[in-house]
Amino acid sequence: MDNIVEINNLKKRYKGFLLDVVSLSVPKGSIMGLIGPNGAGKTTTIKILMNMVRANAGDVKIFGLDHIENEKAIRNRIGYVGEDQYYYGDKTVAWTGNFVSGFFDKWDKNKFQKFITDFAISRTKKISELSKGMKVKFSLAIALSHNPDLILLDEPTAGLDPLIRREVLEILRGLTVDENKSVIISSHITDDISRIADYVTFLIDGKIRLSGEKDELLSQWKRIHYKDGVLDKNIIDAFKNRKKHMFGQSGVTDRFLELKGSLAQGLADETIKLENVSLDDILIAYSKGDKNVENF
Amino acid sequence: MWKIFKQNLRFSVIYLATALMTVVALKFLTGSAISTAFVLLSGFMAYMLVFGLIFVSEMYEEKHHGYVFLSTLPIHVREVVFAKFLRVLIAEILLIGGTITLISLSPGLSDQLVVARSWVLFSGLLALALGGLALIGLFSTSYTAFLKISLVLLVFIQMIPLILMSSGKMLAFIEGTIDFLPTINWLVWIPVGLAVYFCLMLAAVKVKTLHRC
User: Fold this and answer.
1) ipTM of the prediction
2) How confident is the model at residue A295 (pLDDT cuts 50, 70, 90)?
3) What single string gives the DSSP state of each residue in A85-148?
4) Most buried residue, A168, A175, A231, B138, by CB count within 10 Å?
5) At what angle do helices B77-104 and B36-63 cross, to 10 degrees?
6) Is the distance from CB of A5 to CB of A182 less than 8 angstroms?
C-alpha cells in the first residue's frame, strides 16, 4: 500500500521540549489517530505537515513530495481543521467561503453550499458570531469543499459539548466512506480516535511510543488480573500500570499473544482473568511508565 | 496574490482618497502659488498614508490571527508579502503622483517647482523605505510588540530635531536638504527609491518565512 505521508528523523526543538519522530507513515486511504496527552507534540507534528511550523531537522514527504518545496501544491490537496479556528471575525460565512475558494484549484462551490446548509450555518452570520461548535463545522466545510486527498484534523472535538462532539464525529466517520481520502486526526480523547481510526500512533513527550493498526494493537494488549503467587516475577515485571487491590493484582501488557501459553493454566482455574483494554488504558500505561504500582 | 491584495481594498481606497483630498484642501488653503507649508505638509501626508495603511492592516491581521488563517491556504508566504508591499506602493504612487501634478499645475518659478517636486518625491520614497522597514519589523514580531518598540524609537527620533533646534542647526538642516535635493535630477530618485523598496520586500519575505504565523 502506498504511503500518503512519510516522516523520517523529524526534530523540532522548543524551550524544554523536543519533538523527535524517528519514523511515521500513513497509508493511503486510511485514518490515522494521533494520540497523546496535552503537550505531547501532536499539534506541532500536524503544523509541520502543513508547513506552518518549520522543523529543525528531518524529512517529510506528503503525496511523495517534499513538504517545503511543494508547499502550495500540497496544501491544495489538504483539508485542515486546526485546534483553534482562525478566520477574519468581522467577515461573514459567505465572504469567507468566497475568499477561500479563490485559493484552491478544485473548490466545489455546490459542495460548500451543501455543507453549509446541512450544518445549519447561516451564510450571512459573521464568523465572530458563530459558536465554537459552529466554527468547527464551518472549518470542516472549508476543509472538505475542495475535495482534499488528505485531511488533517487537530483536536477537532476539543472543547465541544457532547452533542456537538457526537455530531462532528458522525461527520468524520462519513469521511471513511471514500477510501481515496486519508485522514490524520489528533486527539487526547481516545474515545474519538477509537470510533474512527484504522491506525493509531501514541505520541508521548515528543516521541512515538507505539504505532500500528488499531485492531492489531488492541488484540495484543490485555489487562491481566491475577492472584498473588500465580505468575512468575519476570512476567509481572513486564506489566505496565500495575495495581494491587483486595482481590489480588493486575497489570497491562502488550505481550499477551506471547504470554498466552503461560497464562493457560491460570485462566482454566480462574486464578487469572483477562480484560480487553481501551486506547485510553494504553495511553495511561505509557504515560505512567512501567514502575508505577498503585495500591487500592 | 491578488486575493490578498484585494482584501480590505475598500479601506485602502477610502484612506487614499482621504489623503488626496487633504492634499487638495491644503493646496486651496495655502493659496494658488506653491508655499513651503504646502510642500512640507504634502510630504508629511506621504508618511501618514504609508504608515496608516501598514499599521491598520497589520493590526487587523493580528486581531483576527490572519496570518495563521492564511498559512492554512495554498499560498506562498512571498505572495502574501508581495501583496502587502504592492498595496502600499500603489497607494503611495497615486498620492505622490497627484501631489506632483498639483505642484506642476501651480504658478511659480521653475526652481521653486523643482524643489517642491523633489521634496514631495523624496518624502514619498523615504516613507516607502521606512514603511518597508516597518513591515520587516512587524513580520519579525507581533503588532503589539512592534508598536511598543516603535514608540520608544519615536521618542529617540523626536529628540534629533530638538537637539538640532537647540543648537540652531534645524533651519540649516532643512535649508541644506532643500538646496541639495534639486542638485540631483528628481527623476533619478524614482529608480533608487523603488530598488530600495524592492530589496526591503525581498528581505521581508525571508523574515516572514522564518516567522510564519
Assistant:
1) 0.82
2) very low
3) ----TTSBHHHHHHHHHTT-TT--HHHHHHHHHHTT--TTSBGGGS-HHHHHHHHHHHHHTT--
4) B138
5) 160
6) yes
> CB distance from A18 to chain B under 8 Å?
no
pTM of the model: 0.83
Residue keyed to cell 480516535: A193
In B51-80, the residues whose Cβ lies within 8 Å of chain A are 60, 63-66, 68-69, 71-76
- Collapsing DSSP states into helix, strand and coil, what is residue A200? strand
pLDDT tens digits, one per residue of A45-87 = 999 999 999 899 999 999 999 998 999 999 999 999 998 889 9
Taking the C-alpha atoms of residue A201 and residue A215, their distance in angstroms, rounded to an integer, is 13
- Listed by number, the residues of chain B in 89-148 with a beta carbon closer than 8 Å to a beta carbon of chain A are none
Dihedral sign from CA coordinates of A99, A104, A107, A112: negative
The answer to whether A288 and A240 have CB atoms below 8 angstroms apart is yes
Q: Which helix (H) or strand (E) holds A232?
A: none
Burial class (CB in 10 A: 0-12, 13-18, 19+), A261: exposed
